[in-house]
Every structure is written in structure tokens, then in C-alpha cells.
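Single-chain item
Fold in C-alpha cell form
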Amino acid sequence: MLRYKLFFVLLVCCIAQHSLAQELFVYSEPASNMPKKSVGVRMTNWLMEESASNRQDYHLIPELMWGANKHLMLHTEAFLSNKDGAFSFEGAGVYLKYRFFSTDKVHRHFRMAAFARATTNNAPIHQEEIATYGHNTGYQFGIVATQLLHKTALSLTTYYEQASDNGKGNDYPATLNKNDISYIASVGHLILPKQYNNYKQTNVNLMVELLGQLQPGNGKQFMDVAPSLQFIFNSQTRIDIGYRHELYSNMLRNAPNGFLLRVEHLLYNLI
């Protein structure tokens, strides 16, 4: 089974390498920031299949984003899901990213940024995987580096994550590990347009990302692959469609496989 999964990853990568690309990713943030003085609204929908049943978990994460300047951007997030049987609010978080290094050349650049996220969540803790973006109370901080080569974008993200007790009496189980090192490797290519004439042209991007987590305290880990398709209209409205699939795991994960649908809209020079 692992052999076929690795073949699937290589197939997606080969498709991507024969396309063209852009520096926007679906399952991770690049080192670049949104334009300064701009405000963005993002709605992320997750439809995940529970591994122990035929139940579909639905998670909604609305975000309000602000480009403070060319170095700093901020997000506020809310977490909602149907995990307890009824669709309800579960928590909130704040994310910030600071770009501290940049080298720009014609048709290429390299950038690095530091980021941090702090969240609170009231949901029951039902898995060994730690996910402060939507499931666990806690924090994360890390580094992301992104290389743009003409129309090909490569990005590597790594971060430390610490979980704590969730609200409403949902304490973190003493038998579970509370921290991890996570990583995301991303590659993206622009399919259309073949030639730029103006910024109003629709962009279509194909990408694939590998997402992993290692818990040093117990040696447990997982790795997922996430191919996705992205549409950008008028350089302002973005639609992401992706599918995340588990390649390997030796930890308990409630719903590792499923679809993502995201809609995002930017308002320039608003603040």
C-alpha cells in the first residue's frame, strides 16, 4: 500500500513540474505578505471523513486578515464545527507573520518570515495529533522560507507546537504528548495564463504539499500529501480546492482525509 501511495506523490509532482506557478499556497502560508494597508476576508471549509465511521466532519474557519505593512500581517480566526452533533462555535485564534529577509531579482526572489499563532478551543480532545489551527488550545511558532523562480514557487515551513487544556472541562489527557515539530514542503506552478497581458487575467495554479508532524516525546509521526487547484480572479478573489490524504501515520487521528474549499477576497488600500 505504501508503494502505491509513494507512486501517487511522484505522479502529482511530475504533473506540477510540467506546469507553471505562483507564490500562493493552500495548506501553508508563504514567506511573502499580503499588500500593505489591505484587508482580506477568508472562509475555509473542511469536509473530513472520520476513520472509524462513515461520519463527515465539517469545520468552518472564517478569518479576517490585515496587511499592516510590507513586513507584518495579522489574522484573527474563529473555529466552528459539527463535531458534537450540532454546528457550533468552538474557539478562536490570532496569527501573525513578520517577513525579516528578502532578496528580489528579475523574475525571482527569496524570502523568509517568522510566524506565531495562539488559539483557544472548547472542543473535546479526541486524537493524538496536535492541531492548534482548529482543534487544540495552545500556540505555535516557526519559520517559513519561499523561493520564487520565474513562475515556479517552492516553500518550506517548520514550526514548534504546544497544546494545553481545552475549555469547558475538556482537559488535555495526561497520556498524550503535548508538543510536536511540524513541517510543510510546498511546490506550486501556474497553469494559466500562458502569457500575462494584465492583472485582470484569471490565474489557475496547480500545487502539491507534503505535511508532517513528529512528536519527540513518544516518536509518533504522520505524513500527508495534499494536491490542490487554485483560481485567482482579478488579482483580488481567490478560490482553493484541495484534498488531503494520509500517506503514513502511527498515531491516532480522527479524520485525516478530506476536502478543503476556501474563498478569499482582498480589499486594497482600505486601511
The longest helix spans residues 2-17. Confidence is low (pLDDT under 50) at residues 1-21.
